[in-house]
């Protein structure tokens, strides 16, 4: 039974990764068709991220009340309807309105499934699941590319990915008997348990440094992905095409790294996996600073990707061990919300600083966040012994 559920969750992670990168791929055509400024993509992203943060924050309460299956199924349904709705959108305001269910659905299902896996499966599956999410996120723009040069290009691309999400909804509906059996036998959902407010959760030993670590991690991953190309072009003299290829190797490092981390996690525990990843990131940031050869920068980028790979899955999987299974879902929601907050505020923060100091500060900027993340996780480990 657990094996069948795991297969469904693997499929879900691929499917949920599909919409994450398609806005950027399609926006060059969307803004022209809808006659809006190209900068409006930031507004859509902000709405999606805002919805994701809100739903992640409240996911613990929702799952306690309704159960993992209902929250997951309804969240994927919201995502599917949002994607399909884009096909029919007549104006930019509808894109913004449809961004709301896209964000709300993504945050709740992310928190629900991550907590379910953290509580009921080995660490290797958490790594491989996030690797499969990377496959989905990579496939989304690839699917969109087939439609962009055709009639109703970007609309058809969104509709296709919406149909894939709808198929996932059907799979989740059909899997209801499995979830029911699991919940009956394992008492996975404790609907009668008392809900704990956020202030109390934040007072738990190790909670605050753990949240700081989540914020720093997502800040590092997103800032590197967004600004590394500009750093390589303006600071290292690379062409835009070559810089883009190097950044793709960074993302490849994350995806391949998570696949390999699944095997490594059979030998190392979560804390050791996090520590190894952080030290590799640290080395990568130092190599980015070396001015003598661009080859060091390429190796540094790949190392940051490989280092990032095990950190996030291991931090998620460690949640029940650190705070207990009874509190893990509510803590998981706050962790996810904090992580999304980090991905929202840290890249723009670097963008603002780069206006005054140039893109050359990127390695030092990343190094500061890596060190803070490392110190925060070690502090949390010491408190939660």
Q: Biggest sheet, open or closed, and with what strands and sense? A: none
Topology as a string of helices (H) and strands (E): HHHHHHHHHHHHHHHH
How much beta, percentage-wise? under 5%
Number of beta-strand segments: 0
What fold name goes in the CATH topology slot of the largest domain? Growth Hormone, Chain: A
Architecture (CATH level 2) name of the largest domain: Up-down Bundle
Number of domains: 2
CATH homolog superfamily of the largest domain: MFS general substrate transporter like domains
Structural class computed from helices and strand pairing: mainly alpha
Helix count?
16
Which CATH class of the largest domain? Answer: Mainly Alpha
Chain-wise SSE layout:
Elements: H1 2-17, H2 22-33, H3 41-66, H4 68-88, H5 92-120, H6 123-147, H7 153-174, H8 176-186, H9 198-202, H10 207-236, H11 240-264, H12 270-289, H13 294-317, H14 319-323, H15 325-357, H16 362-383
């Amino acid at each position: 039974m657990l094996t069948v559920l795991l297969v469904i969750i693997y499929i879900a992670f691929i499917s949920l990764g599909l919409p994450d990168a398609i806005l950027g791929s399609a926006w060059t055509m969307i803004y022209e068709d809808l006659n809006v400024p190209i900068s409006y993509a930031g507004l859509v992203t902000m709405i999606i991220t805002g919805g994701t943060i809100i739903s992640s924050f409240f996911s613990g309460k929702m799952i306690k009340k309704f159960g993992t299956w209902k929250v997951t199924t309804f969240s994927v349904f919201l995502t599917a309807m949002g994607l399909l709705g884009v096909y029919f959108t007549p104006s930019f305001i509808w894109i913004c309105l449809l961004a709301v269910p896209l964000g709300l659905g993504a945050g709740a299902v992310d928190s629900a499934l991550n907590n379910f896996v953290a509580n009921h499966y080995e660490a290797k599956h958490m790594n491989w699941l996030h690797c499969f999410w990377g496959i989905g996120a990579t496939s989304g723009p690839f699917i969109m590319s087939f439609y962009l040069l055709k009639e109703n290009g970007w609309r058809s691309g969104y509709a296709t990915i919406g149909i894939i999400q709808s198929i996932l909804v059907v799979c989740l509906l059909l899997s209801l008997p499995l979830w029911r059996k699991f919940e009956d036998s394992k008492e996975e959902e404790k609907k009668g348990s008392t809900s704990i407010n956020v202030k109390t959760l934040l007072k738990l030993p190790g909670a605050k440094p753990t949240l700081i670590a989540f914020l720093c991690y997502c800040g590092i991953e997103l800032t590197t992905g967004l600004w590394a190309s500009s750093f390589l072009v303006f600071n290292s003299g690379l062409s835009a095409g070559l810089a883009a290829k190097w950044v793709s190797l960074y993302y490849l490092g994350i995806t391949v790294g998570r696949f390999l981390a699944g095997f490594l996690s059979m030998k190392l525990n979560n804390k050791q996996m996090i520590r190894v990843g952080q030290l590799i990131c640290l080395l990568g940031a130092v190599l980015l600073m070396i001015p003598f050869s661009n080859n060091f920068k390429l190796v540094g980028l790949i190392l940051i990707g490989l280092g990032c790979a095990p950190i996030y899955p291991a931090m998620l999987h460690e949640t029940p061990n650190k705070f207990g299974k009874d509190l893990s879902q509510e803590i998981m929601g706050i962790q996810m919300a904090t992580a999304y907050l980090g991905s929202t505020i840290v890249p723009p923060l670097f963008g603002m600083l780069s206006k005054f100091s140039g893109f050359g500060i990127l390695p030092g900027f990343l190094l500061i966040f890596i060190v803070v993340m490392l110190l925060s996780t070690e502090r949390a480990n010491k408190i939660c012994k």
